[in-house]
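hey so u asked for the seq, here:
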Amino acid sequence: MPNHDIIAIGASAGGVETVAKLIQRLPPDLPAPLFVVLHFPSNSSSVLPQILNRIKTLPAAHPRNGEPIQPGQIYVAPPNHHLLVQSGQILLSRGPRENGHRPAIDTLFRSVARAYGRRAVGIILSGMLDDGTAGLKFIHARGGVTIAQDPEEALFESMPRSAIEHTHVDYVLKVADVAALIIQLAHTPIPEEKSMSDPAEHDMAKDRNNGIEREGEIVALDKAKLEQGEKSGTASTWTCPDCGGVLWELQDESLIRFRCHTGHTYSLESLVAEQENDLERALWSATRALEEKAALARRMAAQAKQQNRRISETQFLERAQEAQHQAEMLRQMILQQTEIRRGNGKHQAREAIDRTDL
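ran it, structure tokens below
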């Protein structure tokens, strides 16, 4: 009889400290593998395995594509790769970003739910926005166990709070209690409560038989269902921040997501965040264009002066001054918005520190 012995962990801001705190409380003989996704910039290097190996409980590493899954190992998603699992082995994918991230937490959670069903345990820890909420919902639908860190303890509460508010979470716990529950679940057989007549179990078996394990195939299946009108998705008025394609709106009760034809997927919060980034990039491009216009006008004024064309020189200098003034206004607007966003982040961090001090 199997146990809940496939542990998937997702975290973002504040995640390094929180994951390390969790691993410290696990025994070296834990009979379960741990799969960890933290958000890293695509061009960065990850030293998380080295950090976790210093704790000297469970060995941690970035896995290789196709590597067999072993109990008592920590598999950390490498930067710019989704971490996926299928029965018995690990897959690394350069598939479409989800919620602006690769690796993404939702991607890992969906794969463990499809491959292991009721054996899967999904855990959301500290982080910004809401990556992992949709994936946790998928784990619950397949009969797995869902856990969220207590938002009052989390360094950044957005991710665990989103999971609690938008999907069923079996346990809301502090990190020390999460570790104790992992140990308990890994040693406790799953009771025989469901049969193959259960829709979730039937769908999972059908997916395995059809070979629907790779992320690209999941995206293709969803796309085909949308095009045939078999899913409750409608074309939205927004475009994908990654590729510019139409975003389809996918609504599951209170959880709204968007997916384009190539597979880029966003929650409402992550879409807003990406649009803010796009707006900032557009404003910087406009600032650059205005500053180039001012520089060109000054160059033309200098040429007019050399040719003793005083009226033209005055006109070009006026154009340069106007363009430079507009550029400065845009620059101030961008900096003000940036400070507001930084201030919100610092405020959340300050609140987290205050809670920890308590």
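Residues 232-358 form one domain. The first strand starts at residue 6 and ends at 11.
lmk if thats what u needed
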